[in-house]
């Protein structure tokens, strides 16, 4: 083979390989475009654009009187497209960027204008289209930003991008914080009303189309969401902000005084079970904060407050009556190797069972329960279960502790269990469960579940209402109920709760001072005590029940009357003083000394008539032109009606009323001085344009 032939063969081989490669490429291109085109197109789209969730505004939580306990307010993340249409021209951008930087610096006060200018210039040089300027910007700041240089060109020309987020705020701070609660989505933890009613409060998320840009950042394609989110429903709670504030302050004050570990207070309406206040404080460093809901979650040995259940069961079984006498054996009673003691040295001698309850004798109730049920302890424990004390209350908020009522079948049952249970040991209950029992006595024997939510609303319309739920329609007979009420009143009148006695109204309840186990050391370790008081008021016609629990008071007394009692008394006194419905019929007051008719100001005729009628004051109503009336036996009063564009007469009004009237008339008031309005710069009756300024002088 000559050289020419050899060269031609190599050329033909190379050309053939190139042709084969070209054919393979064309075949593959056709396969990708025609056969697999849809697949890869969808993949490309998913990598460049996608739908992101838009958070819905969570519903509000209100108190029973309509006060806002929790709400969501919008806050914004402000970003900027440095290549927006209105600033593509470098001349426009660099002419105004320093002005924008200055305004940002003045508004946010976090960077100098020079720093803002440098950051924005560098971002433009890097051709950033989603540059972060500021997080957590309020709506008021957002409105101001829209007027800034460059940004005032509009969304697409000025390049300002505002991404809305929702921030949860609590107008009353830590008021009922643990009951209002929260929902931690990352940890999956639901606490309080926020967690329990998350399905209602959270609403429905929307969808927004976002596009991935340089740096892997996802930027909204459109200003508005493609699928708008649906805001959450509102929760109307049973909490009364005034009672809640009162309970928290009284509890915290006592915890600080006693240097206790933690404490809780619950105030509940007797008839409805509506929880009006629930306060929980835990020692944290030098102060106290709400970090755990002890009222519903802390299952512990209640101590002497449980004696009410022991008396109820035994008297219902006719084991004894209040007048039956018992020997307290000098305050000591030995069972096996264990000695049960009374807190009073030397005991109380021979006393009636009523007196034993008043002074909280452990020996008396232990002897009665042990002697009555030792041969068949299940007769006692079965009755406790019949009272529903061994069941959870089924609360509307999560985290309820599980009660523990032992039976002879329990593994830990021993010869000491029955006598120990008689006065509140070797069993566990939460403060809320104890309160429900006392509330049942106050409610004529009907035990109802505590209510935290009374209504759910969406856009002002009722979605669901919650009525009192009966747990036990009759906890005992009328005979037993009458004796229990008599005993509970006697505790405050003549027994361990005498410090709570108030001459204006009667309180009924029971003290409880229990020794608390010291971890693994049990009762042999460092002595710790739990002081509690549970009861209701006014005793003759109960409206509220309440429990106070203070754990491990380390300073001063640890007895319930000295630690829990003052909290109960303070809260009850203020509630009674401020709730006119609890008073007996108010007689006509006797007036001593000189009196004068109340000072009146112009305003709403209908509202004034209602006030005067309630006060028994005669009133004369006249028009603005007719003020010549006889005022010897009453009050002359002029009604003010506001019309848009007509200046009202606000002379003689206080500032708040004047601002209201002028605002309704469409005027822009300028205020000078303080007190009552003496002069107004535009006379009454004049017709003015909306937004006209009017100066009012107050003295």
Describe the secondary structure blueprint for this structure:
Layout: H1 3-35, H2 37-48, E1 49-54, E2 61-62, E3 68-80, H3 90-108, H4 113-125, E4 131-137, H5 139-145, H6 155-158, E5 160-169, H7 177-180, E6 182-184, E7 189-191, H8 192-196, H9 198-201, E8 206-213, E9 217-220, E10 234-237, H10 241-258, E11 262-269, E12 275-284, E13 287-289, H11 294-297, H12 307-316, E14 325-327, E15 332-335, E16 338-341, E17 350-352, H13 353-358, H14 362-373, H15 378-386, E18 404-405, H16 417-422, E19 427-428, H17 431-442, E20 447-448, E21 453-458, E22 461-465, E23 470-472, H18 478-494, E24 508-516, E25 528-537, E26 544-551, H19 560-563, H20 565-578, H21 605-615, E27 619-622, E28 635-638, H22 655-664, E29 668-673, E30 677-680, E31 693-698
Parallel strand pairs: 2-10, 27-28, 29-31
Antiparallel strand pairs: 1-8, 2-3, 3-4, 3-5, 6-7, 8-9, 10-21, 11-12, 11-26, 12-13, 14-17, 15-16, 18-19, 20-23, 21-22, 24-25, 25-26, 30-31
Organism: Pseudopedobacter beijingensis
Keywords: Carboxypeptidase, Hydrolase, Membrane, Protease, Transmembrane, Transmembrane helix
Protein name: Penicillin-binding protein
């Amino acid at each position: 083979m000559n050289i020419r032939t050899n060269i031609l063969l190599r050329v033909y081989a190379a050309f053939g390989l190139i042709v084969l490669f070209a054919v393979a490429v064309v075949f593959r291109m056709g396969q990708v475009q025609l056969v697999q085109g849809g697949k890869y197109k969808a993949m490309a789209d998913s990598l460049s654009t996608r739908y992101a969730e838009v958070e819905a505004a969570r519903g509000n939580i209100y108190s029973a009187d309509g006060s806002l306990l929790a709400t969501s307010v919008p806050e914004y993340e402000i970003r900027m497209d440095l290549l927006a249409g209105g600033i593509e021209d470098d001349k426009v951008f660099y002419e105004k960027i320093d002005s924008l930087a200055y305004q940002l610096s003045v508004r946010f006060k976090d960077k100098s204008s020079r720093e803002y200018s440098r950051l924005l210039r560098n971002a433009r040089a890097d051709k950033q289209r989603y540059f972060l300027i500021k997080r957590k910007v309020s709506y008021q700041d957002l409105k101001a930003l829209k007027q800034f240089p460059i940004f005032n060109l509009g969304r697409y020309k000025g390049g300002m991008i505002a991404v809305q987020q929702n921030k949860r705020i609590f107008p009353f701070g830590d008021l009922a914080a643990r009951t209002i609660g929260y929902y931690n989505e990352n940890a999956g933890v639901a606490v309080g009303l926020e967690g329990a009613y998350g399905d209602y409060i959270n609403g429905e998320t929307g969808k927004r189309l976002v596009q991935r840009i340089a740096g892997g950042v996802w930027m909204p394609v459109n200003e508005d969401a493609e699928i708008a989110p649906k805001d959450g429903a509102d929760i109307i709670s049973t909490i009364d902000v005034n009672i809640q504030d009162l309970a928290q302050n009284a509890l915290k004050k006592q915890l600080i005084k006693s240097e206790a570990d933690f404490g809780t207070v619950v105030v509940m309406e007797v008839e409805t079970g509506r929880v009006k206040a629930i306060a929980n404080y835990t020692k944290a460093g030098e102060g106290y904060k709400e970090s755990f809901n002890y009222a519903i979650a802390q299952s512990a040995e209640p101590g002497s407050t449980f004696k009410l259940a022991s008396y109820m069961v035994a008297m219902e079984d006719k084991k004894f009556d209040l007048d039956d006498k018992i020997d307290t054996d000098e305050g000591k009673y030995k069972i096996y190797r264990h000695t049960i003691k009374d807190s009073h040295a030397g005991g109380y001698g021979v006393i009636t069972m009523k007196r034993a309850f008043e002074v909280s004798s452990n020996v008396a109730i232990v002897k009665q329960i042990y002697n009555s049920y030792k041969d068949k302890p299940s007769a006692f424990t079965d009755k406790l279960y019949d009272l529903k004390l061994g069941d959870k209350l089924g609360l509307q908020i999560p985290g309820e502790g599980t009660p523990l009522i032992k039976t002879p079948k329990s593994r830990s049952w021993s010869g000491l269990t029955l006598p120990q249970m008689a006065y509140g040991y070797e069993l566990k209950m939460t403060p809320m469960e104890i309160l429900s029992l006392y509330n049942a006595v106050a409610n004529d024997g009907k035990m109802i579940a505590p209510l935290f939510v009374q209504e759910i609303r969406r856009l002002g319309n009722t979605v669901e209402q919650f009525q009192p739920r009966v747990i036990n329609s009759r906890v005992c007979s009328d005979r037993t109920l009458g004796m229990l009420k008599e005993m509970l009143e006697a505790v405050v009148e003549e027994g361990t709760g005498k410090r709570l006695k108030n001459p204006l109204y009667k309180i009924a309840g029971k003290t409880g001072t229990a020794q608390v186990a010291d971890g693994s050391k049990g009762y042999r370790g460092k002595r710790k005590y739990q002081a509690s008081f549970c009861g209701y008021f006014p005793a003759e016609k109960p409206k509220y029940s309440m429990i106070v629990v203070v754990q491990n008071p380390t300073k001063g007394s640890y007895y319930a009357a000295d630690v829990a009692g003052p909290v109960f008394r303070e809260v009850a006194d203020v509630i009674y003083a401020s709730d006119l419905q609890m008073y007996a019929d108010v007689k006509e007051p006797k007036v001593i000394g000189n009196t004068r008719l109340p000072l009146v100001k112009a305003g709403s005729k209908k509202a004034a008539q209602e006030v005067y009628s309630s006060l028994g004051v005669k009133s004369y109503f006249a028009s603005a032109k007719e003020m010549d009336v006889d005022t010897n036996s009453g009050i002359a009063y002029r009604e003010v009606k506001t019309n848009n564009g007509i200046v009202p007469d606000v002379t003689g009004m206080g500032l708040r009323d004047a601002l209201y009237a002028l605002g309704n008339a469409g005027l822009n008031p300028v205020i000078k001085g303080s007190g009552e309005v003496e002069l107004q710069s535009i006379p009454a009756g004049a017709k003015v344009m909306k937004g006209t300024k009017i100066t009012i002088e107050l003295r």
